[in-house]
Design brief:
Helix content: 55-70%
Strand order of the largest sheet: 1-2-4-3
Strand content: under 5%
Largest sheet: 4 strands, mixed
Radius of gyration: 25 Å
Length: 449
């Protein structure tokens, strides 16, 4: 168990307020960041709703010949409806976060389990499981509303209640089989690996993520969807020729039964190293012509050509290393717990060992870090949009630019993606450039591989 620096808490006397100055500073910083973040999210969401509503009456000029007014208004209504639900989710999330932290919810849950089970690994795992179960139940109503009301209303939901229950059961099983051993190992490292436990935990976590990229396509994804080899021989030949031109090899070309759950269309690469495979949603193949499918695939190959995937993995490695190091330090500071509404497990009797705080530290860290990192999220969104422009340029060099533009317009229309997002909202949230910017870039700039 990580040792906690418990200034003032190892004596039977109550500490003075001055002893908690770091704790109070953390409370103030957390509360301030939470309020500012919520205000910023609400401001951005309301900007998005107002901007889309103002432009609902007419299709933007560049798309007037291809997109009908009915399709444009459907996309506007769909986006506004999701944004309004997002406002409710933000408010609920803020209340729940306060409930877990400053209002004492996590502390109460931890104390209840300690009283019932006593200290030890079983109690720590029970704390993680109980937290996940309660959080999942809180999120469930809005998640169901999103799927069975909003997606249903706009014609996207194909999910039945039976399929939803089957997916939920499989998800819980996979989470338990994979998640519990990982959590147990990290908790064990926190307690047994000494001051540098966080470095060992980071090495394990990164190794697991790389392994998951290999085993997910073969063992986990087929639990939820059916993957059939691409049977269209002419399309297969076209796609294979494209990959050979681009110097890319994959283990196979597969079609996924995405239409069982949603009418949304997509295509993606999955896997790592020799396990890479190309997956097309069946909905995508129904909506796009062969040349358009080739152009979409060329865009995805552009991400590999420009090493975007490797760059993202390196960034993930660096950020996770910093995160584990920060957690390694914070888990030893008593003010980290008290400043967030949790009493750490500290024994006032030096002859009695304290219960571990490792699960508490993990949960607090996961709850609090997003509150602060939210403010730098536009940097990652901007980088992602830059990558998309590069992939578009590569696709135009390897396939037809007209087919790529046509495919994008079809996907925007079929997925009811708004053509008139708020520019500020885009800069903060969008990982892909809006259609107007992408098509303008395709028209104005020559392609470069």
């Amino acid at each position: 168990m990580a040792r906690i620096v418990a200034d003032g808490l190892n004596s039977p006397h109550m500490p003075t307020p001055d002893d908690f100055s770091p704790s109070m500073l953390l409370t103030l910083a957390f509360a301030t960041a939470l309020v500012l973040g919520l205000a910023l999210k609400f401001w951005l969401a309301t900007r998005q709703v107002r901007h889309i509503a103002r432009h609902r009456a007419a299709v933007p000029a560049p798309f007037a010949e291809r997109i009908s007014l009915a399709a444009h208004q459907k996309a506007a209504d769909y986006t506004i409806t999701k944004a309004r639900l997002g406002l409710l989710e933000m408010a609920l999330g803020c209340v729940v976060l306060l409930g877990w932290t400053l209002l004492g919810g996590l502390d109460a849950l931890n104390r209840t389990l300690l009283d019932a089970m006593g200290p030890g690994m079983a109690q720590q795992l029970a704390l993680l499981v109980a937290f996940a179960a309660i959080a999942g139940l809180i999120d469930l109503p809005l998640s169901l509303y999103q799927t069975f009301v909003i997606e249903e209303r706009f014609g996207f939901n194909k999910m039945t209640w039976r399929l939803w229950l089957a997916d939920a059961a499989k998800g819980l099983l996979v989470g338990a089989v994979i998640g519990l051993p990982i959590a147990a190992l990290i908790l064990w490292l926190m307690g047994a690996a000494g001051p540098l436990w966080w470095l060992w935990a980071w090495c394990f976590w990164m190794g697991f993520n790389l392994l998951l990229m290999v085993i997910y396509p073969t063992f986990i994804a087929p639990l939820f969807n059916k993957f059939q080899p691409l049977e269209d021989e002419s399309l297969k030949a076209r796609v294979t020729a494209l990959m050979q031109r681009c110097g890319f090899s994959a283990k196979g070309l597969f079609v996924m039964d995405g239409s069982r759950r949603s009418a949304h269309a997509n295509a993606y690469f999955t896997g790592f190293g020799a396990a890479k495979r190309v997956v097309f949603y069946d909905t995508l193949l129904k909506q796009l012509a062969p040349g358009e499918v080739e152009a979409v695939l060329a865009h995805e190959l552009g991400h590999f050509k420009h090493r975007h995937i490797i760059q993202r993995i390196v960034v993930m490695f660096g950020l996770s290393l910093a995160g584990f190091a920060l957690l390694g330090w914070l888990s030893n500071q008593v003010w980290f717990y008290t400043g967030l509404g949790v009493r750490p497990n500290i024994s006032l009797d030096p002859t009695i060992a304290a219960a571990p705080n490792d699960a508490l530290a993990l949960l607090l860290f996961m709850l609090v870090v997003p509150v602060f990192t939210f403010f730098i999220s536009p940097l990652f969104s901007q980088q992602s949009r830059r990558h998309e422009f590069q992939a578009d340029a590569y696709a135009m060099a390897q396939a037809s630019g007209a087919d790529l533009a046509s495919a994008l317009l079809k996907l925007y229309e079929d997925n009811a993606s708004t053509l008139t997002p708020d520019p500020v909202y885009v800069k903060f949230y969008y990982s892909h450039p809006p259609a107007t910017e992408r098509l303008a870039r395709m028209h104005n700039h020559p392609a470069h591989p």
